Amino acid sequence: MSASPSSLPIQSGISLRQCNTFGIDASARAYLRVDGPDVLQQLRQLRQDARLMAMPRLVLGGGSNILLTGDVDGLVLHMANRGIDVVGEDDQATYVRAAAGESWDGFVQETLRRGLGGLENLSLIPGSVGASPIQNIGAYGIEVKDTFHSLTAFDLLTGDLLVLDKPACGFGYRDSVFKHALRDRAVIVDVTFALPKRWQANTRYADVAQELASRGIDAPAPRDIADAVIGIRTRKLPDPAKIGNAGSFFKNPVVPAERRNALLESHPALVSHVQPDGSYKLAAGWLIDQCGWKGKTLGAAGVYEKQALVLVNRGGATGKDIADLAAAIQRDVMVKFGVMLEPEPVFV
User: Fold this and answer.
1) Which Pfam families match (predicted)?
2) Mean pLDDT value of segment 270-283
């Protein structure tokens, strides 16, 4: 361990294998565990350490939406702050704030234990609370933006703490301002959610409705929906603790209605869902499956047997192995359907 002039515990040559759910064995040139914004403030004040200040920075949470394609030649800021608190309420909602370093699923389950609904459809998604707005994570008819209230972020450029509301975050499909204007600048410190007091069950997805029906539940509570989602995800998706993966690897492509209708003529079984603007979201997993990739392996990387949308580390895969597999899948889908799949994870 090497100490900075302010005694920040910055380490060098640290393996990041346990910091990414793919289990890629890459290392960081420099590594700092961040327990709160005070650590970030101290880091910014290290102007006398020119070498450190010149390093590129990578913010890591749970490492569930990242593909390390090699060693990180820079400073890794690993968010590890903790805390979950009810910070207010009104007639419409209860406001719950969680630190960026909290486990996302741990946070969801804690809100349910406190009798608060609204996040149950997002159960068992790996990763951290701080990463959830960056990706605007979503599943089974819900996205983070639906219950998002605000967040606090540390501005590495100015040293200020920023408070951003929903419009300021620029949420889109698996997208936000943190992938654009605030990328490499803002570090999310905590996130506040507005959990509705007039809760309504969201069972629009057939899988959820069928799972509830199989359990004999026709008037589900939030806990019932969470249990149903956990049951579905457990059967369909691999546990990152056992098989390295980052969940869904590709976004579901959105195409104009004309393009979807043309594809439907040549592929009558095409799985698609109409969007509010009249475009259609295509099921990326179905497209990949039709190209024969489900269960296939390329080197030490493979496609999960139960879900073609999930790429896995069969053991000892490098980031390049995963990236090469992803590129091969993209090529085949483009040739067969004329659609380019876009990865969800960030390549580093």
Assistant:
1) FAD_binding_4 (PF01565), MurB_C (PF02873)
2) 95
